[in-house]
Amino acid sequence: MTVDTTVNLNDLDLADPDIYTAPDSGLGVLHYLQEHRPMFWNKRSDGPSFWAFTKYADGVAVYLDKTNFTSERGMQVGQTESAARAAAGKMLIVTDGRHSQLRDVMNPALTPRVVRRLEGAMRETVGGMLEENAQKDSFDFVDTVAGRLPLSVICELLGVPRADWDLMIQWTRTAFGSATSDDVISDAEKAEANANIFAYYADLLAERRDNLGDDVISVLIRGQIDGTPLTDEEILLNINGLITGGNETTRHASAGAVIALVENPDEWRRLREDPSLIPTAVEEVLRWTAPSLNVMRTALRDTRIGDQTIRAGERVSVWHPAVNRDEDAFPDARRFDVGRTPNRHLTFGLGKHLCIGAALARFELRVLLEELTGRVARMELTGPVKRLRSNLMWGVDRVPVHLELDHAGH
Protein backbone atom coordinates (compact mmCIF):
# COMPACT_ATOMS: atom_id res chain seq x y z
CA MET A 1 0.00 0.00 0.00
CA THR A 2 1.26 3.48 -0.83
CA VAL A 3 1.73 5.55 2.30
CA ASP A 4 -0.30 8.76 2.41
CA THR A 5 2.31 11.53 2.53
CA THR A 6 -0.29 14.29 2.98
CA VAL A 7 -1.10 13.52 6.63
CA ASN A 8 -1.24 16.73 8.65
CA LEU A 9 0.01 15.69 12.06
CA ASN A 10 -1.05 18.98 13.63
CA ASP A 11 -4.71 18.26 12.91
CA LEU A 12 -4.63 14.47 13.25
CA ASP A 13 -6.76 12.87 15.95
CA LEU A 14 -6.76 9.08 15.87
CA ALA A 15 -9.85 9.11 18.09
CA ASP A 16 -11.85 10.48 15.16
CA PRO A 17 -13.99 7.52 14.00
CA ASP A 18 -14.34 8.96 10.50
CA ILE A 19 -10.70 8.05 9.80
CA TYR A 20 -11.61 4.35 9.73
CA THR A 21 -14.49 4.70 7.26
CA ALA A 22 -12.05 5.73 4.49
CA PRO A 23 -11.51 3.38 1.53
CA ASP A 24 -8.18 2.28 3.05
CA SER A 25 -9.88 1.92 6.50
CA GLY A 26 -7.36 4.31 8.02
CA LEU A 27 -4.29 2.22 7.18
CA GLY A 28 -2.69 5.07 5.20
CA VAL A 29 -2.64 7.24 8.31
CA LEU A 30 -1.41 4.43 10.56
CA HIS A 31 1.32 3.38 8.12
CA TYR A 32 2.45 7.00 7.84
CA LEU A 33 2.79 7.24 11.61
CA GLN A 34 4.62 3.93 11.76
CA GLU A 35 7.19 5.13 9.23
CA HIS A 36 7.52 8.75 10.29
CA ARG A 37 6.23 9.16 13.87
CA PRO A 38 5.93 5.73 15.52
CA MET A 39 5.55 7.41 18.93
CA PHE A 40 3.00 10.09 18.20
CA TRP A 41 1.63 12.49 20.81
CA ASN A 42 -2.04 12.76 19.81
CA LYS A 43 -3.38 16.09 21.07
CA ARG A 44 -7.11 16.30 21.62
CA SER A 45 -9.32 19.33 22.15
CA ASP A 46 -12.35 17.41 23.42
CA GLY A 47 -10.76 14.61 25.41
CA PRO A 48 -7.53 13.39 27.03
CA SER A 49 -4.45 13.45 24.78
CA PHE A 50 -2.47 10.23 24.41
CA TRP A 51 0.62 8.59 22.97
CA ALA A 52 -0.04 6.43 19.89
CA PHE A 53 2.40 3.55 19.31
CA THR A 54 2.41 1.86 15.91
CA LYS A 55 5.57 -0.30 16.15
CA TYR A 56 5.30 -3.92 17.25
CA ALA A 57 8.18 -3.78 19.76
CA ASP A 58 6.65 -0.79 21.52
CA GLY A 59 3.29 -2.55 21.68
CA VAL A 60 4.91 -5.59 23.27
CA ALA A 61 6.69 -3.36 25.80
CA VAL A 62 3.41 -1.75 26.87
CA TYR A 63 1.57 -5.06 27.16
CA LEU A 64 4.27 -6.71 29.25
CA ASP A 65 4.88 -3.80 31.66
CA LYS A 66 2.74 -4.73 34.66
CA THR A 67 4.47 -2.25 36.96
CA ASN A 68 4.28 1.12 35.26
CA PHE A 69 0.94 1.01 33.45
CA THR A 70 -2.64 0.39 34.52
CA SER A 71 -5.81 -0.52 32.61
CA GLU A 72 -8.06 0.73 35.40
CA ARG A 73 -8.35 4.29 34.02
CA GLY A 74 -9.59 3.20 30.60
CA MET A 75 -8.52 0.48 28.20
CA GLN A 76 -9.38 2.00 24.80
CA VAL A 77 -9.03 5.43 23.23
CA GLY A 78 -12.33 7.28 23.37
CA GLN A 79 -13.47 5.78 26.65
CA THR A 80 -14.01 8.15 29.55
CA GLU A 81 -11.90 7.70 32.67
CA SER A 82 -14.98 7.97 34.90
CA ALA A 83 -16.62 4.99 33.19
CA ALA A 84 -13.44 2.94 33.50
CA ARG A 85 -13.01 3.79 37.18
CA ALA A 86 -16.60 2.70 37.87
CA ALA A 87 -15.76 -0.80 36.57
CA ALA A 88 -12.13 -0.93 37.75
CA GLY A 89 -11.40 -3.90 39.98
CA LYS A 90 -14.72 -5.50 39.03
CA MET A 91 -14.57 -6.07 35.26
CA LEU A 92 -11.74 -8.29 34.02
CA ILE A 93 -10.42 -6.03 31.24
CA VAL A 94 -10.10 -2.99 33.54
CA THR A 95 -8.77 -4.85 36.58
CA ASP A 96 -5.13 -5.17 37.59
CA GLY A 97 -4.82 -6.18 41.26
CA ARG A 98 -7.52 -8.89 41.29
CA HIS A 99 -7.06 -9.78 37.63
CA SER A 100 -5.69 -13.30 38.17
CA GLN A 101 -8.35 -14.23 40.74
CA LEU A 102 -11.16 -12.91 38.57
CA ARG A 103 -9.73 -14.72 35.57
CA ASP A 104 -9.63 -17.96 37.57
CA VAL A 105 -13.34 -17.56 38.36
CA MET A 106 -14.23 -17.10 34.68
CA ASN A 107 -11.92 -19.69 33.11
CA PRO A 108 -14.13 -22.75 33.86
CA ALA A 109 -16.80 -21.26 31.58
CA LEU A 110 -14.41 -21.14 28.62
CA THR A 111 -12.44 -24.38 28.83
CA PRO A 112 -11.59 -26.32 25.65
CA ARG A 113 -14.18 -28.92 26.68
CA VAL A 114 -16.91 -26.27 26.85
CA VAL A 115 -15.80 -24.81 23.52
CA ARG A 116 -15.79 -28.22 21.82
CA ARG A 117 -19.30 -28.87 23.13
CA LEU A 118 -20.49 -25.95 21.00
CA GLU A 119 -18.89 -27.21 17.78
CA GLY A 120 -22.02 -28.91 16.45
CA ALA A 121 -24.12 -25.78 16.94
CA MET A 122 -21.41 -23.67 15.30
CA ARG A 123 -21.29 -25.88 12.21
CA GLU A 124 -25.07 -26.01 12.01
CA THR A 125 -25.25 -22.19 12.17
CA VAL A 126 -22.54 -21.53 9.57
CA GLY A 127 -23.43 -24.40 7.26
CA GLY A 128 -27.11 -23.62 7.38
CA MET A 129 -26.63 -19.94 6.59
CA LEU A 130 -24.23 -20.70 3.74
CA GLU A 131 -26.58 -23.24 2.17
CA GLU A 132 -29.56 -20.94 2.60
CA ASN A 133 -27.94 -17.86 1.06
CA ALA A 134 -25.52 -19.24 -1.51
CA GLN A 135 -26.66 -18.78 -5.10
CA LYS A 136 -28.50 -15.57 -4.20
CA ASP A 137 -27.41 -12.72 -6.41
CA SER A 138 -26.16 -10.95 -3.30
CA PHE A 139 -26.49 -11.05 0.48
CA ASP A 140 -24.80 -9.31 3.40
CA PHE A 141 -22.23 -11.69 4.87
CA VAL A 142 -21.97 -9.66 8.09
CA ASP A 143 -25.62 -9.75 9.02
CA THR A 144 -26.27 -13.25 7.70
CA VAL A 145 -23.20 -15.28 8.71
CA ALA A 146 -20.43 -13.33 10.44
CA GLY A 147 -22.83 -11.83 12.97
CA ARG A 148 -24.81 -15.00 13.57
CA LEU A 149 -21.91 -17.29 14.44
CA PRO A 150 -20.46 -15.44 17.48
CA LEU A 151 -23.91 -14.33 18.59
CA SER A 152 -25.18 -17.90 18.69
CA VAL A 153 -22.09 -19.02 20.61
CA ILE A 154 -22.24 -16.26 23.23
CA CYS A 155 -25.98 -16.69 23.69
CA GLU A 156 -25.49 -20.46 24.13
CA LEU A 157 -22.76 -19.82 26.69
CA LEU A 158 -24.89 -17.34 28.62
CA GLY A 159 -28.07 -19.39 28.38
CA VAL A 160 -30.02 -16.75 26.43
CA PRO A 161 -33.27 -18.13 24.95
CA ARG A 162 -33.06 -18.47 21.17
CA ALA A 163 -36.05 -16.17 20.73
CA ASP A 164 -33.98 -13.28 22.14
CA TRP A 165 -30.86 -13.71 20.00
CA ASP A 166 -31.81 -11.14 17.36
CA LEU A 167 -32.53 -8.62 20.09
CA MET A 168 -29.07 -9.22 21.54
CA ILE A 169 -27.26 -8.47 18.30
CA GLN A 170 -29.32 -5.32 17.79
CA TRP A 171 -28.53 -3.99 21.26
CA THR A 172 -24.83 -4.86 21.21
CA ARG A 173 -24.23 -3.30 17.79
CA THR A 174 -25.94 -0.10 18.96
CA ALA A 175 -24.26 -0.03 22.38
CA PHE A 176 -20.74 -0.37 21.05
CA GLY A 177 -21.09 2.09 18.21
CA SER A 178 -20.87 -0.35 15.32
CA ALA A 179 -22.34 1.96 12.72
CA THR A 180 -21.51 2.90 9.17
CA SER A 181 -20.60 6.44 8.22
CA ASP A 182 -24.12 7.15 6.99
CA ASP A 183 -25.82 5.68 10.05
CA VAL A 184 -24.37 7.52 13.03
CA ILE A 185 -25.52 6.27 16.43
CA SER A 186 -26.12 8.97 19.02
CA ASP A 187 -24.78 8.85 22.57
CA ALA A 188 -28.37 8.62 23.80
CA GLU A 189 -29.02 5.57 21.63
CA LYS A 190 -25.83 3.90 22.86
CA ALA A 191 -26.78 4.61 26.48
CA GLU A 192 -30.27 3.20 25.97
CA ALA A 193 -28.90 0.02 24.37
CA ASN A 194 -26.41 -0.44 27.20
CA ALA A 195 -29.21 0.02 29.74
CA ASN A 196 -31.32 -2.57 27.92
CA ILE A 197 -28.45 -5.07 27.96
CA PHE A 198 -27.82 -4.63 31.67
CA ALA A 199 -31.54 -4.84 32.49
CA TYR A 200 -31.94 -8.01 30.44
CA TYR A 201 -29.01 -9.76 32.07
CA ALA A 202 -30.01 -8.55 35.53
CA ASP A 203 -33.30 -10.40 35.05
CA LEU A 204 -31.49 -13.47 33.70
CA LEU A 205 -29.06 -13.37 36.64
CA ALA A 206 -31.91 -13.29 39.15
CA GLU A 207 -33.49 -16.25 37.40
CA ARG A 208 -30.19 -18.22 37.45
CA ARG A 209 -29.72 -17.68 41.19
CA ASP A 210 -32.86 -19.75 41.68
CA ASN A 211 -32.01 -22.29 39.01
CA LEU A 212 -28.27 -22.81 38.52
CA GLY A 213 -27.05 -24.57 35.39
CA ASP A 214 -23.76 -25.03 33.56
CA ASP A 215 -23.86 -21.71 31.66
CA VAL A 216 -21.42 -18.82 32.17
CA ILE A 217 -23.77 -16.89 34.45
CA SER A 218 -24.09 -19.92 36.76
CA VAL A 219 -20.29 -20.30 36.79
CA LEU A 220 -19.94 -16.66 37.86
CA ILE A 221 -22.61 -17.07 40.55
CA ARG A 222 -20.69 -20.03 42.01
CA GLY A 223 -17.34 -18.26 41.76
CA GLN A 224 -15.57 -16.77 44.76
CA ILE A 225 -12.53 -14.59 45.34
CA ASP A 226 -10.89 -15.07 48.74
CA GLY A 227 -14.03 -16.82 49.95
CA THR A 228 -16.36 -14.03 48.86
CA PRO A 229 -18.88 -14.53 46.03
CA LEU A 230 -18.99 -12.04 43.17
CA THR A 231 -21.56 -9.29 43.52
CA ASP A 232 -24.36 -8.86 40.99
CA GLU A 233 -22.55 -5.79 39.66
CA GLU A 234 -19.32 -7.74 39.11
CA ILE A 235 -21.18 -10.53 37.33
CA LEU A 236 -23.08 -8.12 35.07
CA LEU A 237 -19.96 -6.13 34.18
CA ASN A 238 -18.13 -9.29 33.16
CA ILE A 239 -21.10 -10.56 31.17
CA ASN A 240 -20.96 -7.26 29.32
CA GLY A 241 -17.25 -7.79 28.66
CA LEU A 242 -17.88 -11.26 27.26
CA ILE A 243 -20.61 -9.96 24.98
CA THR A 244 -18.30 -7.27 23.60
CA GLY A 245 -15.37 -9.58 22.99
CA GLY A 246 -17.36 -12.61 21.98
CA ASN A 247 -19.76 -10.94 19.60
CA GLU A 248 -18.08 -7.88 18.13
CA THR A 249 -14.51 -9.14 17.79
CA THR A 250 -15.29 -12.45 16.09
CA ARG A 251 -17.92 -10.86 13.87
CA HIS A 252 -15.42 -8.42 12.38
CA ALA A 253 -12.69 -11.05 12.07
CA SER A 254 -15.08 -13.38 10.23
CA ALA A 255 -16.25 -10.70 7.82
CA GLY A 256 -12.67 -9.55 7.32
CA ALA A 257 -11.64 -13.11 6.51
CA VAL A 258 -14.06 -13.24 3.58
CA ILE A 259 -12.87 -9.86 2.26
CA ALA A 260 -9.23 -10.96 2.51
CA LEU A 261 -9.89 -14.26 0.74
CA VAL A 262 -11.88 -12.58 -2.05
CA GLU A 263 -9.18 -9.96 -2.54
CA ASN A 264 -6.45 -12.63 -2.49
CA PRO A 265 -7.84 -15.38 -4.75
CA ASP A 266 -4.54 -17.29 -4.82
CA GLU A 267 -4.70 -17.63 -1.04
CA TRP A 268 -8.34 -18.78 -1.27
CA ARG A 269 -7.38 -21.49 -3.78
CA ARG A 270 -4.38 -22.44 -1.67
CA LEU A 271 -6.57 -22.87 1.41
CA ARG A 272 -9.20 -24.91 -0.42
CA GLU A 273 -6.55 -27.21 -1.87
CA ASP A 274 -4.71 -27.68 1.42
CA PRO A 275 -7.03 -27.68 4.47
CA SER A 276 -4.02 -28.36 6.72
CA LEU A 277 -3.32 -24.62 6.37
CA ILE A 278 -6.49 -23.67 8.24
CA PRO A 279 -4.78 -23.28 11.67
CA THR A 280 -2.22 -20.85 10.22
CA ALA A 281 -4.96 -19.17 8.19
CA VAL A 282 -6.88 -18.50 11.40
CA GLU A 283 -3.85 -16.70 12.85
CA GLU A 284 -3.36 -14.72 9.65
CA VAL A 285 -7.01 -13.65 9.67
CA LEU A 286 -6.57 -12.47 13.26
CA ARG A 287 -3.38 -10.57 12.39
CA TRP A 288 -4.91 -9.04 9.29
CA THR A 289 -8.31 -8.03 10.66
CA ALA A 290 -7.19 -6.83 14.14
CA PRO A 291 -10.80 -6.12 15.23
CA SER A 292 -9.89 -4.32 18.45
CA LEU A 293 -8.54 -1.10 16.94
CA ASN A 294 -6.47 -0.03 19.92
CA VAL A 295 -5.70 -0.76 23.53
CA MET A 296 -4.84 1.89 26.08
CA ARG A 297 -2.97 2.08 29.36
CA THR A 298 -2.23 4.94 31.78
CA ALA A 299 1.25 5.49 33.23
CA LEU A 300 1.35 5.17 37.02
CA ARG A 301 4.75 6.83 37.22
CA ASP A 302 7.37 8.30 34.93
CA THR A 303 8.78 5.57 32.70
CA ARG A 304 10.22 4.97 29.25
CA ILE A 305 9.18 3.05 26.16
CA GLY A 306 12.18 2.86 23.86
CA ASP A 307 13.66 6.36 23.76
CA GLN A 308 10.44 8.08 24.76
CA THR A 309 9.78 9.31 28.30
CA ILE A 310 6.20 8.76 29.42
CA ARG A 311 5.09 10.97 32.30
CA ALA A 312 2.92 9.76 35.17
CA GLY A 313 -0.74 10.13 34.23
CA GLU A 314 -0.15 10.12 30.48
CA ARG A 315 -2.11 7.67 28.36
CA VAL A 316 -0.42 5.32 25.90
CA SER A 317 -2.19 3.41 23.14
CA VAL A 318 -1.18 0.48 20.91
CA TRP A 319 -2.77 0.41 17.44
CA HIS A 320 -3.29 -3.21 16.43
CA PRO A 321 -3.78 -2.82 12.65
CA ALA A 322 -0.41 -1.06 12.50
CA VAL A 323 1.66 -3.19 14.89
CA ASN A 324 0.34 -6.32 13.18
CA ARG A 325 1.68 -4.97 9.88
CA ASP A 326 5.10 -3.93 11.14
CA GLU A 327 7.74 -5.14 8.66
CA ASP A 328 10.26 -5.41 11.50
CA ALA A 329 8.09 -8.08 13.13
CA PHE A 330 6.39 -9.74 10.14
CA PRO A 331 8.29 -10.31 6.87
CA ASP A 332 6.22 -9.07 3.93
CA ALA A 333 3.79 -7.78 6.54
CA ARG A 334 1.38 -6.12 4.14
CA ARG A 335 0.66 -9.35 2.32
CA PHE A 336 -2.13 -11.72 3.38
CA ASP A 337 -0.51 -15.17 3.69
CA VAL A 338 -2.60 -18.14 4.94
CA GLY A 339 0.58 -20.11 5.59
CA ARG A 340 2.39 -17.43 7.60
CA THR A 341 4.47 -18.81 10.45
CA PRO A 342 5.49 -17.72 12.99
CA ASN A 343 2.67 -15.27 13.50
CA ARG A 344 2.94 -13.58 16.88
CA HIS A 345 0.27 -10.96 16.28
CA LEU A 346 -1.05 -8.80 19.11
CA THR A 347 -4.73 -9.08 18.23
CA PHE A 348 -5.53 -10.77 21.55
CA GLY A 349 -3.03 -8.74 23.54
CA LEU A 350 -0.16 -10.23 25.49
CA GLY A 351 0.78 -11.08 29.05
CA LYS A 352 -1.74 -11.20 31.88
CA HIS A 353 -4.34 -9.29 29.86
CA LEU A 354 -4.34 -11.83 27.03
CA CYS A 355 -7.97 -12.09 25.86
CA ILE A 356 -9.78 -14.71 27.93
CA GLY A 357 -11.90 -15.67 24.92
CA ALA A 358 -8.96 -16.18 22.54
CA ALA A 359 -9.39 -19.96 22.32
CA LEU A 360 -13.11 -19.58 21.65
CA ALA A 361 -12.55 -16.98 18.91
CA ARG A 362 -9.91 -19.18 17.25
CA PHE A 363 -12.27 -22.15 17.30
CA GLU A 364 -15.11 -20.13 15.76
CA LEU A 365 -12.84 -18.90 12.97
CA ARG A 366 -11.59 -22.43 12.35
CA VAL A 367 -15.15 -23.68 11.96
CA LEU A 368 -15.97 -20.79 9.65
CA LEU A 369 -12.97 -21.45 7.38
CA GLU A 370 -13.60 -25.20 7.35
CA GLU A 371 -17.24 -24.70 6.38
CA LEU A 372 -16.36 -22.10 3.74
CA THR A 373 -13.61 -24.16 2.10
CA GLY A 374 -15.67 -27.34 2.31
CA ARG A 375 -18.89 -25.92 0.88
CA VAL A 376 -18.07 -22.88 -1.27
CA ALA A 377 -16.41 -23.04 -4.67
CA ARG A 378 -16.33 -19.33 -5.43
CA MET A 379 -16.84 -16.04 -3.58
CA GLU A 380 -17.11 -12.53 -4.94
CA LEU A 381 -18.02 -9.10 -3.63
CA THR A 382 -21.13 -7.65 -5.25
CA GLY A 383 -20.79 -4.08 -4.03
CA PRO A 384 -18.75 -1.76 -1.83
CA VAL A 385 -17.81 -2.85 1.68
CA LYS A 386 -19.09 -0.55 4.44
CA ARG A 387 -16.49 0.16 7.09
CA LEU A 388 -17.45 0.85 10.69
CA ARG A 389 -17.53 4.38 12.00
CA SER A 390 -15.86 3.56 15.31
CA ASN A 391 -12.68 4.35 17.24
CA LEU A 392 -13.01 1.16 19.29
CA MET A 393 -13.61 -1.63 16.79
CA TRP A 394 -11.81 -1.87 13.43
CA GLY A 395 -14.20 -3.71 11.21
CA VAL A 396 -16.95 -3.76 8.65
CA ASP A 397 -20.69 -3.32 8.87
CA ARG A 398 -21.72 -4.66 5.47
CA VAL A 399 -20.06 -7.09 3.08
CA PRO A 400 -22.29 -7.82 0.06
CA VAL A 401 -21.26 -11.14 -1.47
CA HIS A 402 -22.26 -13.83 -3.92
CA LEU A 403 -21.28 -17.42 -3.12
CA GLU A 404 -21.39 -20.48 -5.31
CA LEU A 405 -21.55 -23.83 -3.58
CA ASP A 406 -19.24 -26.71 -4.42
CA HIS A 407 -21.90 -29.29 -5.26
CA ALA A 408 -19.30 -31.88 -6.12
CA GLY A 409 -17.89 -31.77 -2.60
CA HIS A 410 -14.38 -30.88 -1.73
UniProtKB/TrEMBL annotation:
Q: What keywords does the record list, in alphabetical order?
A: Heme, Iron, Metal-binding, Monooxygenase, Oxidoreductase
UniProt key word Heme: yes
SUPFAM superfamilies to which the protein is assigned, alphabetical? Cytochrome P450
Q: Which Pfam families match?
A: p450 (PF00067)
Query: Known InterPro entries for this protein?
Result: Cyt_P450, Cyt_P450_B, Cyt_P450_CS, Cyt_P450_sf
Q: Which family does it belong to?
A: Belongs to the cytochrome P450 family.
| Cross-referenced PANTHER family | BIOTIN BIOSYNTHESIS CYTOCHROME P450, P450, PUTATIVE (EUROFUNG)-RELATED
The protein's name? Cytochrome P450
**Record organism:** Streptosporangium oxazolinicum
Q: What is the lineage of its organism?
A: Bacteria, Bacillati, Actinomycetota, Actinomycetes, Streptosporangiales
